[in-house]
Design goal:
Elements (H helix, E strand, L loop, with lengths): L48 E10 L2 E9 L17 E7 L6 E9 L14 E5 L2 E9 L5 E8 L7 E2 L13 E4 L5 E5 L31 E5 L12 E3 L1 E2 L17 E8 L2 E7 L6 E6 L6 E8 L10 E5 L2 E8 L10 E7 L16
Parallel strand pairs: 13-17
Antiparallel strand pairs: 1-2, 2-3, 3-4, 5-6, 6-7, 7-8, 9-10, 10-11, 11-12, 14-15, 15-16, 16-17, 18-19, 19-20
The structure holds beta-L-arabinofuranose.
Length: 359
């Protein structure tokens, strides 16, 4: 195994601060120290580094599909080269708080015939008796594409298709299945995620974000084919508008989409949620169908410790849960740990703002 796990020989403990429970042993931080930040929640997994948690309820449990962060010894840069992940572990949990199970590696980069490097944030979906693991990875030309791998069990192992999804690009796939059974993939991410290189429709290494006063780059959405292996249509822009109906602009760094799309539906409202990247918020916008447009509402998670912020939202046992990550265990931006907390929708559809620190 690579490098990582020095924090403690903690088993996977699921010591979670959630729903107001008081949790017994926070073994990695036994004595209160006022100089250290106090985190709202504790890491779900402490024996490997995990990030970008995509959570779904499958077979009556929560399955979590995170990135598996490793220390690859690559210097940090805006391109994200230091995020050099090589496999995915898959986890499940039945009660929160409770024991989390590591089902082991569900997919290795070496088994993806077209992959070059950097296995980034995945997601999973279920349809007609099959499970689908969607993953972004750079191909052998160093261009991020999105692949799919299949299994008959949520924990895998997953068998990758021989080629990336045709027409796919960039990172952070998130697949949402609507009440009518149609599934949609949201994807895209700026900077290291290369979305700006596709702004003309073709891959262009000199592609840039639009000028400050122009509409910001959008995430993409595409309906999935019935077999879940392809796009059923060309990807469309996920438009985010302000309350006056105007597109968010490139200069709206604290509001505009950067990466980490997610979609959930509550009370007939479609919530497009995402990271604002360089301003480190999780933000949300509401629409009345899966394609949008979506109207920007605000943020629902203040910046966590670490540069990246990435999440998923899932309803389990009548509560909405927010899975997210920070860098509590390592203090290093590329060695993250996943967490969970409750997410509350107000009666008017707004989402309560979460502070990941306790003051
Ligand atoms: O984990 C690598 C990248 O960092 C993800 O794809 C982004 O969303 C960010 O979390």
């Amino acid at each position: 195994m690579t490098t990582i796990i020095h924090t403690s020989k903690l088993k996977i403990l699921a010591v979670i601060g959630l729903f107001g429970f008081t949790f017994p042993s926070i073994a990695q931080n036994p004595k209160p120290d006022s100089s250290k930040p106090k985190f709202l929640n504790q890491p779900l997994i402490s024996d490997i580094y995990t990030a970008d948690p995509s959570a779904h309820v499958f077979e009556g449990k929560i399955y979590i599909y995170p990135s598996h962060d490793i220390e690859a010894g690559i210097k940090e840069n805006d391109n994200g080269d230091h995020f050099a992940m090589r496999d995915y572990h898959i986890f499940s949990i039945e009660t929160i708080p409770g024991k989390i199970t590591d089902h082991g590696v569900g997919l290795y980069i070496k088994n993806i015939p077209w992959a070059g490097r950097q296995l980034w944030a995945p997601d999973a979906a279920y349809k007609n008796g099959g499970y689908y693991l969607y993953f972004p990875v750079k191909d052998k030309n160093d261009i991020f594409r999105i692949g799919v791998a299949t299994s008959y069990a949520p924990a895998g192992p997953y068998k990758p298709e021989l080629k990336p999804i045709p027409g796919s690009f960039s990172i952070d796939p998130a697949v949402f299945t609507d009440a009518d059974g149609s599934s949609y993939m949201y994807f895209g991410g700026l900077w290291g995620g290369q979305l700006q290189r596709w702004s003309t429709g073709n891959y262009d290494t000199s592609g840039k974000e639009p000028a400050d006063d122009e509409p910001a780059l959008s995430a993409k959405v595409s309906k999935m084919s019935k077999d879940m292996l392809q796009f059923a249509e060309s990807p469309r822009d996920v438009k985010i508008l302000d309350k006056n109906g105007n597109a968010l602009l490139t200069k709206d760094h604290d509001k505009r989409f950067f990466e980490g799309s997610w979609m959930h539906r509550d009370n007939g409202r479609y919530y497009f949620t995402y990271s604002t990247g360089d301003t480190h918020f999780l933000a949300y916008a509401i629409g009345n169908n899966p394609y949008g447009p979506f109207t920007y509402q605000g943020t629902f998670l203040k910046p966590v410790q670490g540069w990246t912020t990435h999440h998923s939202i899932v309803k389990y046992k009548d509560k909405w849960l927010l899975f997210y990550h920070d860098t509590e265990l390592s203090g290093k931006t590329h060695l993250r740990n996943i967490k969970v907390t409750e997410l509350v929708h107000n009666a008017d559809g707004t989402i309560q703002l979460i502070d990941p620190f306790v003051k």
